[in-house]
Amino acid sequence: MLGPVLLAAARSDGIRRVVSAAPVSRQVVARFVAGEELADAVAAVRDLSARGLEVTLDHLGEDVTDPREALRARDAYLSLSEALKHEGLGARAEMSVKLSAFGQALPGGHDLALAHVTPVVEAAAAAGTTVTLDMEDHTTVDSTLAILRTLRERFPQTGAVLQAYLFRTEEDCRDLAGEGSRVRLVKGAYKEPAVVAFQDKPEVDRAYVRCLKILMTGHGYPMIGTHDPRMIAITQELARRHGRKTDEYEFQMLYGIRTQEQQRLVAEGHRMRVYTPYGTDWYGYFMRRLAERPANTAFFLRALAGRR
Questions:
Q1: Contact between 94 and 124 (Cβ < 8 Å)
Q2: Which of these is catalytic: 74, 184, 273, 288?
Q3: Beta partners for 183?
Q4: pTM
Q5: Is 134 a catalytic residue?
Q6: Cβ–Cβ under 8 Å, residues 97 and 134
Q7: Is 184 a catalytic residue?
Q8: How far from chain centre, in Å, is Cα 269?
Q9: Sequence-separated contacts (24+) of 234-239 with Cβ below 8 Å
Q10: pLDDT tens, 5-58?
Q11: Which of 58, 74, 92, 134 does the annotation list as catalytic?
């Protein structure tokens, strides 16, 4: 029952102000966020790469309400692209973007988000890397996938995220399982109504496996976003069954979570990419991480108790 409460809190401005202002919050957030500055993100790429891991970088921020904030998000990613190019890290790190940070929810938001994300995708290509479009709540899916189609006309390596708990996602997987497509499959981390999404964990797990089978039997490049040992084992079995080599799919996990498992998969020869957020606007991301796993919430509460 705690998960839905935390997901609701993720969009509460009042709770945001309280949690963000607490000194202990920043100390705990350091487990899940690489840092607040661009230099922190670059340092994280170097560190993770040295351990055989690949990276996808997320400059934190979403649900912007001011066009100037959307421009700042665009400029942050342009600076990130330039830094990856300068450091020669494009082969090790891609970028993940939330289109709501680029103004998707503003008036005329679809066109605005497309206008802002296009130069970011161009800059990523110049840096020798690519962009994956993060998926947000169900109201944004059609717009996000339409922007993906437009971007892939010039940059076919642009990726997308699909959330298995949405009823529509099996069909979206079929649409995106073609040659050259890159899809990160996750279970889903937003509070969605029962009319559009599965609510119970067993149902979500079964939906994830159905979607996973579609992607692994297709001709695209599946990116398996999970920390679930059962889903990892199913992925490995499906890869064996369908003759996929270890460079024809990858696992993805979150920064600071199951780090030993990340290293184990690398040692077995798998591609393992770490979703690495950075920036000052960490509140929404942090609350969703707490909602996903009770252990994360316990970790946070122990830290608060320790400070007191």
A1: yes
A2: 184
A3: 160, 222
A4: 0.87
A5: yes
A6: yes
A7: yes
A8: 23
A9: 234/209, 238/212, 238/213
A10: 444 444 555 544 545 455 545 566 777 889 889 999 999 999 999 999 999 999
A11: 134
